[in-house]
Design brief:
The chain is an alpha+beta fold and 485 residues long. Helix content is 30%, strand content 22%. The protein has a 7-stranded mixed sheet, sandwiched between helices. A 6-stranded mixed sheet has the order 14-18-13-17-15-16. Helix 11 links the parallel strand 15 and strand 16. Helix 3 crosses helix 4 and helix 14 runs antiparallel to helix 15. The longest helix is centred in the first third of the chain and has 24 residues. The chain starts with a helix and ends with a strand. 36% of the residues are buried.
Length: 485
């Protein structure tokens, strides 16, 4: 009887072991992508898919999750009143995927790496930072001048494994670099089959619990192929679809996540070529925004009367301003000018509504052509979208030192941009209300809509709770929480 019991128990536990292994083996998330992946080294990525995968393997020191600042590395931090020094303390149990301890030296190395190799708009910001090590768990960032966004800009700094990276220097394009990381998943291999696969495996040394065992990013030549693969259950997730592209029979099997990005589509008038005040009041009195939302975006977006849509206002803690309107048709409504717009995405559809409803003429250009036109200010009005980042960096589009889309000289607006950047007395998020009001006061922009970014995920998966992302590549900041039923 004892022998029989031992045999039975050993068989039972062997069955449990097999069952456990089988369940874990099935915990794989497969996402379809339409951009090829060749490089995963931070700051060397060339498209959103590469950047998305790189962000999973090499998370930033601070990240913005649903509008809140979080960190996978920092247990506590303090910002001095002058806003030119940030002290950090790391969690005790931080390790790289190869078992090496993650220390403040890896923070210092990551900052210097970014200064040298990050895109110019990032490296210019980080040039103001230095990092001093106190011990392997503590250190502080010193800024050459106060920055209200100084803490938020640390989202551009990534802890990097200094010992591992030094083995490959100067070959930082080597995909082997991505096999050692600090994120919830690291590169396992790249499979060159009928469809190229980037396979990530669970990082056993990640501090938090990770539910999935693997992630596969599967490359398709176009979105139609990717949608077909979703219909055949060959993939579990897909993002970046245009609204008409989602087949009705797919909607029953997936959850559609409407992610909010810090962006807005609008008509930007060049004040040197047209007085747009009456036009703005007339359009404010119309139902144009609602018509665009319904006809073009199938109600997948947020009407945006000012620069910020309602979801972003809630994150910033600011209310919607009042708007003047006048239903009387202005004399220059059908004046001989054209609205320039891009040939991509939904811009021509919006332009046709403007033509059919109000008689506006429009001309379509490639993105490259339109960007050149914007630089030379050779336009009367532009229908376009701006991605202003988070926290908002509106100076890039509306200041004289930036693109200055409206060709305006506004000393008060310039003063507000300066205060937002360097006045330590102000709340850097709520102060965006003051900047928005000043831009709206000039009546040179008609803001229309903030379209959602769609992410389709099979109902077999749970734990995805993201609703706001500051960049498309940051939609998997909490991928460790995703699980398969």
């Amino acid at each position: 009887f004892i022998i029989f019991s031992l045999i039975f128990l050993s068989s039972f536990f062997f069955f449990l072991f097999l069952n456990f292994n089988s369940e874990n083996k099935d915990k794989i998330y497969r996402e379809g992508v339409t951009e090829d992946v060749k490089n995963l080294t931070p700051y060397f990525t060339t498209n959103e898919t590469e950047k998305t995968i790189s962000n999973i393997i090499f998370p930033s020191l601070f990240e913005i999750y649903n509008g809140q600042l979080i960190s996978k590395f920092v247990s506590s931090y303090s910002l001095n009143s002058e806003k030119n020094q940030i002290e950090i303390t790391l969690f005790d149990n931080l390790f790289w995927s190869d078992g090496e301890k993650l220390t403040t030296e890896d923070i210092r190395f990551g900052l210097e790496f970014a200064k040298k190799f990050a895109p110019s708009q990032i490296s210019k910001i980080l040039a103001k930072y230095s990092f001093q090590i106190i011990n392997e768990n503590q250190g502080f960032f010193k800024l050459s001048s106060p920055l209200n966004y100084g803490l938020y800009y640390l989202k551009y700094v990534k802890p990097l494994p200094s010992k591992h990276f030094s083995k490959f220097s100067p070959d930082f394009l080597n995909p082997e670099l991505a096999k050692v990381g600090s994120g919830p998943f690291v590169l396992e291999n790249i499979i060159f089959s009928e469809n190229k696969k980037i396979v990530l495996k669970k990082n056993k040394n990640f501090r938090e619990k990770v539910y999935l065992e693997k992630i596969e990013f599967i490359y398709f030549e176009n979105m139609r192929e990717a949608i077909n693969a979703f219909l055949l259950k060959e993939i579990d997730g897909l993002s970046g679809l245009s609204y008409p592209e989602i087949p009705p029979n797919l909607k029953t099997r997936v959850r559609i996540y409407n992610l909010v990005l810090p962006r807005v589509i609008g008509i930007f008038f060049n004040k040197e070529k047209i007085n747009s005040e009456n036009l703005i009041d007339y359009l404010n009195a119309s139902n144009l925004r609602a018509e665009v939302l319904n006809s073009v975006f199938k109600n997948r977006g947020e009407i945006t009367k000012g620069i910020f849509s309602n979801s972003i206002r809630k994150i910033l803690g600011i209310e919607e301003p009042n708007f003047s309107s006048n239903p009387v048709k202005p004399e220059n409504l059908n004046k001989d000018f054209e609205i320039y717009t891009a040939s991509s995405f939904f811009y021509p559809d919006i332009a046709r509504i403007l033509r059919d409803k109000y008689g506006f003429k429009f001309r379509v250009f490639t993105n490259e052509e339109l960007n050149e036109i914007i630089k030379t200010k050779n336009y009367t009005a532009i229908l376009y979208g701006i991605n202003y980042n988070f926290p908002p960096q509106l100076n890039f589009f509306f200041s004289q030192a930036g693109l200055n889309l409206n060709s305006i000289s506004d000393p008060l607006l310039e003063k507000k941009f300066f205060d937002l950047n360097q006045n330590p007395e102000i709340d850097p998020l709520k102060f965006n209300k003051e900047i928005e009001l000043e831009i709206l006061k000039n009546k040179t922009n008609f803001f229309i809509i903030n379209p959602y970014y769609q992410f389709l995920l099979s109902k077999d998966f749970v734990g995805y709770n993201t609703f706001f992302i500051s960049e498309i590549s940051e939609r998997f900041i909490k991928i460790q929480d995703m699980d398969k039923k």
